[in-house]
Specification:
Layout: H1 5-15, E1 20-27, E2 34-41, H2 42-62, E3 70-74, H3 80-91, E4 95-99, H4 106-115, E5 118-123, E6 138-140, E7 166-171, E8 182-186, H5 187-200, E9 211-213, H6 221-232, E10 236-238, H7 247-257, E11 261-265, H8 266-276, H9 280-287, E12 291-295, H10 301-309, E13 314-320, E14 324-329, E15 339-340, E16 345-350, E17 353-358, E18 373-383, E19 386-392, E20 396-398, E21 404-406, H11 407-417, E22 422-428, E23 436-441, H12 447-463, E24 477-479, H13 496-502, H14 504-510
Parallel strand pairs: 1-10, 3-4, 3-5, 5-6, 9-10, 11-12, 12-13, 23-24
Antiparallel strand pairs: 1-2, 7-8, 13-14, 14-15, 16-17, 17-18, 18-19, 20-21, 22-23
Helix pairs in contact: 1-2, 2-3, 5-6, 8-9, 11-12
Length: 515
């Protein structure tokens, strides 16, 4: 029997009606500090979702848009109102197509809406001025949960009749051929997410309510996955003031919201670990949490071992948009850093290395002719059933926000558009806010002029990409003398990771980090 997100929602809001589900920050405009964390219960969430569902069912019906149609949602995914938009439109019988604010180009959004055969677009108010060319009906997202009730009939939440029907449409977190790709998620796929999120989010102490925190935007899979785990266990989730919240705000969430489980992308957890080395109070609070789960980007081995040694209950959740959670650490008696797949296969590709593949429940369609979803992630089996990550078999990197970026596509475009300017180039930026391109020039042109000319010639290419994939400032181009970039001894190919390491100080300077 398959379980949908709406069945999870219905069961949880019925069982835990009076329990807190969200803690929402109210920020003082002058100081920027959180004055209060208000509480929204499961019961209030259910009432708001039902009210939103009736509102959108009526609005879309009046435009002649039938149920089971795809509706684009171009939202931040970071607020309570965004959450009730997503669940409300799904509850109304429609298929949400999720767009992130990090994809600000409306032309790319329109293309993806057409590919999904979407019938309407609900958008964040910040996009009001750029939607004049949209050919679909458009609706500005509601600003508050306090909307009038309308008398509109909703369908009963029933068991899934067709496991291959699409429940959600997400998008890859990086662009290929100038655009993200659709990731249509079937109810069969969603059922695996329900199961895995239940396992990952299982309370350490069933006698108390867990309190966790947003790991990312509901427009992406990570927080969608975690929220389903939150609902299933009657837990509570804190909405931070921003995703890269400070260690001070984390301490406040622990004290005033009762946070006992931390979910964070690796780059931001690394910041808290760095701060805890200088702050015994913060270290003690982190060590007393029931769970510290990080995902997206790996933290350094030094940070990982230091955290484990100091008593943090650290777990690395390895996943992707297409599959959700794949492997989890923390269960090996002698080495808690080792990863294991709870229910997936790792297929050997050569001696000592394995590439993760999934079986058909992942999506409404598979992505390879062999019936498997190939992620390109490499692992080494160091003990029977236990693995360590060994990177990828392609040229993709992950940004600070754990979203993906195709470095080779940027390099190829730069070489194509600037053949008389660039002799060689490489794009780096793993764990950074955006990519940086290092170039060896063809001539002795003034470096500032050269960088501006490269930005001018590649501007159109970058305008179609996510914000975290773009190189749009001369500050993100570094010119070095010919022959400077590290190369392999045999073929002379530039070694991307070696460039990251050799120029770490320069990258820190570019992004304003302490050295």
């Amino acid at each position: 029997m398959l379980t949908s997100h709406l069945e999870v929602y219905q069961r949880s809001t019925s069982l835990h009606s009076a329990s807190p589900l969200f803690r929402i920050p109210h920020v003082c405009p002058s100081s920027g500090r959180v004055e209060e964390w208000s509480t929204i219960t499961y019961g209030q969430f259910e009432r708001d979702v039902e009210r939103y569902a009736r509102h959108w069912a009526r609005a879309l019906r009046r435009k002649g848009i039938p149920r089971r149609s795809v509706i684009g949602l171009w939202l931040s995914g970071l607020t309570y109102v965004d959450c009730i938009h997503i669940y409300g439109i799904s509850r109304a019988g429609y298929i949400p197509q999720m767009f992130s604010l990090r994809l600000p180009n409306p032309e790319v959004v329109y293309e993806l809406l057409r590919k999904a055969d979407a019938r309407a677009l609900v958008y964040d108010a910040c996009f009001e001025s750029v939607l004049s060319n949209c050919t679909l009906p458009v609706y500005q997202a509601l600003q508050t949960s306090e909307i009038a009730s309308v008398d509109e009939e909703l369908e009963r939440i029933a068991p899934i009749a067709n496991e291959n029907e699409v429940a959600f449409i997400f998008h890859t977190s990086g662009s290929t051929s100038g655009s993200p790709k659709l990731v249509p998620c079937s109810y069969r796929w969603l059922n695996t997410v329900v199961q895995k999120s239940n396992y990952i989010s299982r309370p350490r102490n069933p006698g108390r309510q867990d309190v966790t925190v947003f790991i990312g935007s509901m427009s992406h899979i990570a927080q969608t996955f975690m929220f389903l785990g939150t609902l299933q266990h009657g837990s509570c989730v804190v909405q931070p003031t921003k995703l890269n919240y400070s260690s001070e705000e984390l301490i406040d969430m622990i004290h005033r919201c009762g946070l006992n489980r931390l979910n964070a992308f690796g780059s931001w957890l690394g910041m808290h670990l760095k701060n805890s080395r200088q702050d015994a109070k913060l270290l003690s609070l982190l060590a007393n949490l029931d769970d510290v789960v990080y995902s997206g980007l790996a933290i350094s081995r030094e940070d990982e071992q230091w955290a484990i040694k100091n008593g943090l209950k650290l777990r690395n959740l390895f996943g992707s948009t297409e599959i959700g959670g794949m492997l989890i650490s923390g269960g090996h008696e002698k080495n808690p850093a080792l990863l294991t797949p709870p229910s997936w296969n790792l297929v050997p590709i050569r001696t000592h290395f394995r590439q993760h593949r999934s079986s058909p429940p992942v999506l409404g369609r598979t992505l390879r002719a062999d019936g498997h979803m190939h992620t390109g992630d490499l692992f080494q089996e160091v003990a029977s059933g236990w693995y360590v990550s060994r990177g990828r078999d392609d040229d993709w990197i992950k940004s600070e926000t754990s979203l993906r970026c195709d470095t080779k596509a940027i390099e190829d475009n730069a070489r194509q558009m600037c053949p008389g300017l660039i002799a060689e180039c490489v794009v780096v930026g793993s764990g950074r806010p955006s990519p940086v391109m290092f170039i060896e020039p063809t001539s002795d042109m003034d470096h500032d002029k050269l960088k501006k000319e490269i930005i001018r010639k590649t501007r159109q290419f970058h305008s179609r990409r996510y914000l975290h994939e773009r190189i749009t400032s001369p500050n993100m181009v570094v010119v070095v003398p010919r022959g400077t970039l590290p190369r392999t001894a045999t073929k002379g190919n530039i070694r991307r990771k070696a460039v990251e390491e050799a120029f770490a100080t320069e990258l820190d300077r570019i992004f304003g980090r302490s050295i």
